[in-house]
Write a structure and sequence with these properties.
heterodimer; A: 179 residues; alpha+beta; Arc Repressor Mutant, subunit A; Glutaredoxin; 2 domains; elongated; B: alpha/beta; Rossmann fold; Ubiquitin-like (UB roll); de novo design (two linked rop proteins); five-stranded mixed beta sheet; four-stranded parallel beta sheet
Chain lengths: 179, 429
């Protein structure tokens, strides 16, 4: 830990918001370099918070308290600020997710095209409820709001890809293909 | 006639060489020979409105920048497209990223800004990548960087991904998010043009608005204005979804009749179905009945009719749709997306959700339509940002215009001693 005000404050605050003892998270040298380049792009260090968290999620899969601490140290912000940001935005996972994170839209345009039926189908097919991960760690199922693919409804997101004009058959084929 | 959608179907339209073959980057060259104030004047004359949804005249917004303020100025492009029913900016960013960049260059020259952020919704991973590639191409060609087109004018464009929050489409929330904070809206004034990103003068414009700027320069403000209706210049992209044969994004003049969009361009309703209701401008816009669709789709006509053009996300409901359940979907959405900062919106959206959940659950009370209206009317005008209105207007629209359907739903589904829980809510939605 660096001996500066931020790190000391962060340590105290981190201890106060998490009861579990976690190993410190550390970026790989390549990711660290990427993080520094991101920070350099902005006129204020705070502004790099979302891109740093996106990078961290790509590296670690989810934003654990240790990863919040890593981001706080990099950004020189109190870890409570980072925690506030992480919990505000839905895309930051606070728990591990499966290898494939399936997020199905259930907002109005998709709802009109049978999104509820497809959600039920996904639950049955995967044997899990919304918010759960299959025991083999392969799939996590989330129901989300509008993905802005309303003209190709129903739509869902699998990791970074958006898949549209969904049918039960299309979902079955896709899940079969995901190894 | 096509302007911003002209290149959507062209192969490799996202590449710089293809864009230039279609006349791309000629407008910025022309603009750089113009006085910045002349560009602002042309945009004012063009009646180009804010196409993210607010409809504020773009040129007037630019003219609000304070003179003599020594701080840097920023241009922020709002690419947070999240209003349910809206899917248009995606097309521009996917198929014509250089058009957006050319608009950014012209706007930056006009307002004298050297840094532009494109705040793009986090789920648009593909579009963010396309934009990054387009920026790299433009940089390599000398169109961005220290001296754009050889002129002593530096310009950098930075793609900034959001992380899943509808509220960040609101411009002050977006700025807080860009500053690395929670996306909580700010009290206005000061408006962003005076104190925006890092308390510096900032112009926030939607992707589509900025993408029409090159066309204003090419055609001239007057000619652009004449393409639309009174005080609503040019064309715009209409997103059509729901119960139509050809859902899609259609570029048509401002003021195109809603009936024409639904029945001609979007192919009408499926065989045997009749029109029941239409949301004309994204989920926040008050619903129209089937009898109200002979209306020109521009900001002023819809405002006069008690609805709004908003983002022009047209959502079509046919006679098979249960509107009580449809409203429940919208209420759940706004309750989820309320940022939690101010009480009327946070609590009000939560109460509306509880009420509509018990209605769906068979525990609806005869007074519930009025309960919903009372809460909605108590949110309106009492929140920091327009999300309060956005959450209330659909409730007021649906309950007022389709009251009989709500009353019938409550009367026929009512169970004696029904628990007022949300048990069936998830299943029903």
């Amino acid at each position: 830990m660096k001996n500066d005000g931020y790190s000391v404050t962060n340590k105290i605050m981190a201890d106060s918001i998490t009861t579990e003892q976690t190993q410190p998270a550390v970026f790989s040298p390549a990711a660290f370099k990427e993080a520094e380049a991101i920070i350099a792009r902005y006129p204020s260090r705070d502004s790099a918070t979302l891109p740093i968290l996106h990078l961290a999620q790509r590296e670690f899969g989810y934003i654990s308290p240790a990863v919040e601490q890593l981001a706080a140290d990099l950004l020189q912000r109190p870890v409570t600020d980072i925690h506030g940001v992480v919990t505000f935005y839905t895309m930051f996972n606070q728990k591990p997710v499966g290898k494939y994170h399936i997020q199905i839209c259930r907002n109005i345009s998709c709802w009109l095209k049978n999104a509820p039926g497809l959600l039920e189908h996904l639950k049955n097919r995967l044997g899990i409820d919304v918010g759960e991960t299959t025991p083999d760690g392969k799939f996590t199922l989330t129901a989300i709001e509008c993905l802005a693919h309303c003209e190709q409804a129903p739509a869902m997101q699998v990791n970074d890809d958006i898949i549209t004009n969904l049918t039960k058959e299309k979902i079955d084929t896709l899940i079969g293909d995901l190894k | 006639m096509k302007l911003v959608s002209r290149n959507f179907a062209t192969p490799d339209s996202h590449k710089l060489a293809v864009y230039e073959q279609s006349g791309g980057y000629a407008r910025i060259r022309k603009a750089l020979e113009m006085e910045p104030q002349k560009i602002i004047d042309e945009v004012i004359t063009s009646n180009l409105r804010g196409l993210g949804g607010a409809g504020f005249p773009a040129g007037r917004k630019w003219s609000f920048l304070p003179k003599g303020n020594p701080k840097p100025r920023y241009l922020v492009v709002n690419a947070d497209e999240g209003e349910p029913g809206t899917c248009k900016d995606k097309y521009i960013m996917t198929y014509d990223p250089h058009l957006l960049l050319e608009g950014i260059m012209i706007a930056s020259w006009a307002i004298n800004s050297h840094t532009c952020f494109i705040y793009i919704r986090g789920e648009y991973v593909k579009q963010a990548r396309i934009l990054e590639e387009a920026i790299a191409e433009a940089k390599a060609a000398g169109y961005l960087g220290d001296k754009i087109f050889g002129k002593d004018f530096p310009l950098e464009v930075i793609v900034h991904r959001g992380a899943g929050a509808y509220i960040c489409g609101e411009e002050t929330s977006l700025l807080n998010s860009l500053e690395g904070q929670r996306g909580w809206p700010r009290l206005k004034p000061p408006f962003p043009a005076v104190e925006g990103y890092l308390a510096c003068p900032t112009i926030v414009n939607n992707v589509e608005t900025i993408s029409y700027v090159p066309w204003v320069i090419e055609l001239g403000g007057q000619k652009f204005a004449e393409l639309g209706s009174e005080r609503n210049g040019g064309l715009r992209l209409y997103s059509v979804s729901g119960c139509v044969n050809k859902p899609g994004v259609y570029e048509l003049p401002m003021g195109t009749p809603l009936r024409e969009i639904i029945f001609e361009h979007a192919g009408g309703l499926p065989e045997g179905r009749t029109l029941k209701a239409v949301i004309p401008g994204g989920s926040s816009a008050p619903v129209l009945t089937a009898a109200e669709i002979d209306i020109p789709m521009d900001f002023d006509s819809l405002a006069k009719a008690g609805s709004m053009l908003g983002s022009a996300g047209i959502i079509v409901f046919d006679d098979s749709v249960n509107l009580v359940e449809a409203l429940a979907v919208l209420i759940r959405f706004y309750a989820h997306e309320s940022c939690g900062q101010c009480t009327p919106c946070r609590e009000g959206t939560g109460w509306m959700r509880k009420i509509i959940a018990r209605v769906l659950d068979g525990g609806g009370r005869p007074a519930d339509p009025d309960n919903l209206l009372r809460i909605a009317n108590n949110i309106i005008g009492r929140s920091i940002c327009p999300l309060g209105e956005a959450a209330s207007l659909p409730v007021i629209g649906f309950v007022t215009k389709f009251r009989a359907e709500f009353e019938e739903y409550i009367a026929t589904s009512r169970k004696v001693d029904a628990p007022a829980t949300t048990s069936r809510m998830a299943a029903a939605l």
